[in-house]
Design goal:
single chain; 174 residues; mainly alpha; 6 helices; 0% strand
Length: 174
């Protein structure tokens, strides 16, 4: 019976440790709840003002949570911000306005979307520089380990599509 007891005790300890880690991660993520809710409801022109707090919260979680200190997990978190931005911008861009409706209104929505993405890139780079100046994380690794392409490729492609649509609108106005 004692071999079962040893295995059971080991498993119980592992469950306790994993549960504590999960609780810590949930507490860390609570920091992001309000900034993410604000982003999910924002108009494209309001997004740039939300980015510094959002990135500060992500940086704090990264520095305190063993789970989010892993570059791939942090990359996924940052990619979700990019996805949320695309979602908010596409909600404001109406293709009928671009092709047969109010081209001026479409131009404004497209420009606001492009600006918000440019600001996302700028604020992200500032955060990377800040982390690097402070010497990175507990293990000495900073945000330079993050796959920027994974975070930004699709949001930059979206921005380029917005620029292409901007040309269509300007052509319509002429």
């Amino acid at each position: 019976g004692s071999t079962y007891l040893i295995a059971f005790t080991r498993l119980a300890d592992e469950i306790k440790e994993t549960t504590q880690t999960a609780e810590d991660d949930c507490n860390s993520l609570r920091l992001l709840q309000e900034p993410c809710e604000n982003l999910a409801a924002a108009e494209p022109e309001d997004i740039p003002a939300l980015l510094p707090l959002l990135l500060d919260c992500i940086r704090m979680i990264w520095s305190t949570s063993p789970f989010f200190s892993i570059p791939e997990r942090l990359t996924r978190c940052l990619r979700k911000v990019s996805n949320a931005m695309i979602h908010r911008c596409t909600a404001k861009i109406h293709l009928p306005d671009i092709f047969d409706g109010d081209a001026q209104k479409a131009i404004q929505a497209l420009q606001e979307s492009i600006t918000s993405i440019d600001e996302w890139d700028l604020h992200y780079k500032r955060t990377v520089d800040l982390v690097e100046r402070k010497g990175g994380g507990k293990d000495g690794k900073g945000w330079k380990e993050i796959d920027d392409n994974n975070v930004f490729a699709h949001v930059f492609a979206f921005s380029q599509r917005c620029k292409d649509l901007l040309e269509v609108c300007e052509g319509r106005l002429q």
